[in-house]
Amino acid sequence: MPPTTGDKDEDRRRKRQTRKEGVTRHVILIRHGQYTENEKLDENRILTELGRQQADYTGRRLKEMIEGVEVRVSNMARAKETADIIASHLEGVERSEPDSDLNEGRPSHTLPGGDSYVSKSTIEKTDDGHTRIETAFRKYFYRAQDPPRMNILVESASDTGDDNNIAEMDVTNIENKNSGSKHEFEIIVCHANVIRYFLCRALQMPPEAWLRLCTFNCSLTYLTIRPTGTVSCRMLGDIGHLPYDKSTFSMHSGFNW
Asked: Using one digit for the tens of pLDDT, what is the confidence trace for 149-196?
């Protein structure tokens, strides 16, 4: 039986109430600062002096935007060092343990693609990285609940998801650190490929387009997740806090490369 007009009106009323009274999640994704790419071991791939300056500028900007947030970070040296510098500007900030699921990798195949365009080793790396990075996406992109509920799902490498909004997740016992507030903030310091994939997934864009986006060192990508499940992007790779002479994409300076 199709829904009646009364059912539709009640559904709209519930959605308006949820949006008005529910909690909006603010997820700010930050790429690490410039680092020494010529080193082979991760522990030696630390920030350059410029990279440390970039992280310092980023921490200052975040201090102006928000305080009392939780900082999450990947388990790679350059991201942890960036997070340390940023957190030094955020008084009383909570730090979570490094999460290896946020480590850099190839999150999805790209278009154009196929054997004629990419190497077999690249295809294998992508197949290996997809499940891990998709797991990270499902950890951190969910509707806020009071108390919040979360279920971390691991999908097969072929599943890129086509749901209409961020799923409502379903495991309890996670304390709501922002009880009474209608906004909760989370800062995630990780890597360019991971950030680009998260953006595509959150906005329901084909994840195969991730490599067409550009996120500079210490750039901010800012997404909001409403209690109704709708997602919007407020910033994409924003580096307005960095002077031009301190703006880099990896070892490339400025924009003319």
From this structure: 333 333 333 333 444 455 443 333 333 444 457 888 999 999 999 999
> Are 151 and 174 contacting, i.e. CB atoms less than 8 angstroms apart?
no
Cα–Cα distances (Å) from 167 to 123, 150, 221, 227, in that order, read: 28, 10, 21, 11
Predicted local confidence at residue 67, as pLDDT: 59
Q: Which pair of tokens denotes residue 116?
A: 């004629």
Beta 252-253 vs 24-31: how paired, if at all?
unpaired
CB 102 within 8 A of CB 136: yes
Q: H-helix or E-strand containing 188?
A: strand 183-190
Dig out the tokens for 132 from the structure.
């891990």
**What is the DSSP code (8-state) at residue 35?**
B
pTM: 0.81
Does CATH place domain 23-253 in 3.40.50.1240?
Answer: yes
Domain residue ranges in the chain: 23-253
Is residue 192 within 8 A of residue 35, CB to CB? The reply is no
Owner of token pair 């996670």 = 174
